[in-house]
């Protein structure tokens, strides 16, 4: 340990930031008193969650909350209230050991969507206090059609809308899951929540985190907070959806943007939607397909808050 003891604290912290894995860092605390005091100062962290647990049960899952959210859209509130109300606390409990988190990446064990076999849906959502934007890319393996593309789109519109709603609910559950972490770590500048299957990504940048904290500090609507708790997710605001579908490829692209003063339309909105789509998937495995989808006809839809 003599050589290691000669390294300055700043260099040790640089190493810890490169390690980033929370489980590894917590083990490092047992190496020495010095490590024990320095590990909590790590600024860049990766928290890999084996399973999401709650304060009331060690077998709770995001799927239960996803199912519960769908019931809110279908049944009256008293029916949903019969389901157990559980607050997810596991990430906040683990991260309470760290004092200076600036960048946090949380990885869940699996995706939240349970779709029919042969269906693939990927999404990327950006949040502040609530949803700002969400880009959803989906396709069905082995897609076939008889050449009547308009009929094929119309026939599958309900399915594609359900893909969109499922992705939005999954994103809002993930956002809600880390509300305590955001509240307890005021120095955080970026938050990313993914899953090992690569299904969806929630991103909250510095400005979004600031808005989220400010909103919570000034929140006076207790009923809204209680309703969020019962749902187990953040409410999705009214939004405008731009849907593009390419039946020959069997692919669909949906860009969702929250609106406060009515739906935005026009050339400027087209460009912004395209930029969001390319930001989400332009550099990934689906980049070429997304670029082709941007060339096809758009279908505009509006969605109320839920």
Task: Describe the structure concisely for a colleague.
This is F-box protein At1g22220. By secondary structure, this protein is of the alpha/beta class. It contains 13 helices and nine strands.
What this model shows, in words?
- It comes from Theobroma cacao.
- Residues 1-49 form the F-box domain.
- This protein has 306 residues and is an alpha/beta fold.
- The protein contains 13 helices and 9 strands.
- Strands 1-2-5-6-3-4-8-7-9 form a 9-stranded mixed β-sheet, sandwiched between helices.
- β7 (239-246) and β8 (251-258) form a beta hairpin.
- It starts with a helix and ends with a strand.
- Residues 54-61 and 69-89 have low confidence and may be disordered.
- Helix content class: 40-55%
- The end-to-end distance, rounded to whole angstroms, is 57 Å
Structure summary, number of beta strands: 9
Strand arrangement, major sheet: 1-2-5-6-3-4-8-7-9
Tell me what portion of residues adopts beta-strand conformation.
15-25%
Low-confidence stretches: 54-61, 69-89
Shape: elongated
| Overall mean pLDDT | 82
Main sheet properties: 9 strands, mixed
Radius of gyration: 21 Å
Q: What order do the SSEs take from the amino end to the carboxyl end, as H and E?
A: HHHHEHHHEEEHHEEHHEEHHE
What is the overall number of helices? 13
Which structural class do the helices and strands define? Answer: alpha/beta
């Amino acid at each position: 340990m003599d050589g290691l003891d000669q390294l300055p604290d700043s260099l040790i912290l640089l190493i810890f930031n490169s390690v980033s894995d929370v489980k590894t860092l917590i083990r490092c605390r047992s190496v020495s008193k010095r490590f024990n005091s320095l590990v909590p100062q790590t600024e860049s962290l990766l928290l890999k969650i084996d399973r999401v647990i709650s304060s009331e049960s060690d077998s709770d899952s995001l799927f239960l909350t996803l199912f519960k959210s769908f019931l809110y859209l279908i049944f009256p509130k008293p029916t949903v209230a019969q389901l157990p109300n559980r607050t997810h606390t596991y990430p906040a409990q683990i991260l309470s050991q760290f004092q200076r988190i600036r960048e946090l990446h949380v990885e869940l064990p699996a995706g939240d969507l349970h779709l029919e076999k042969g269906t693939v849906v990927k999404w990327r959502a950006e949040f502040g206090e609530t949803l700002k934007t969400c880009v959803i890319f989906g396709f069905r393996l082995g897609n076939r059609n008889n050449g009547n593309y308009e009929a094929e789109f119309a026939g599958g519109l309900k399915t594609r809308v359900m893909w969109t709603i499922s992705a939005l609910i999954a994103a809002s559950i993930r956002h809600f899951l880390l509300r305590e972490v955001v509240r307890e770590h005021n120095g955080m500048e970026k938050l990313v929540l993914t899953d090992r299957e690569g299904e969806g990504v929630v991103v909250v940048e510095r400005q979004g985190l600031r808005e989220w904290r400010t909103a919570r500090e000034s929140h006076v609507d207790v009923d809204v907070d209680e309703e969020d708790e019962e749902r187990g997710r953040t409410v999705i605001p009214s939004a405008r959806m731009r849907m593009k579908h390419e039946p020959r490829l069997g692919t669909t692209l949906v860009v969702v943007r929250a609106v406060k003063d009515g739906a935005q339309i026009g050339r400027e909105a087209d460009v912004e939607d395209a930029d969001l789509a390319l930001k989400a998937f332009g550099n990934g495995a689906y980049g070429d397909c997304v670029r082709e989808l941007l060339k096809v006809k758009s279908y505009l839809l509006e969605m109320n808050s839920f």
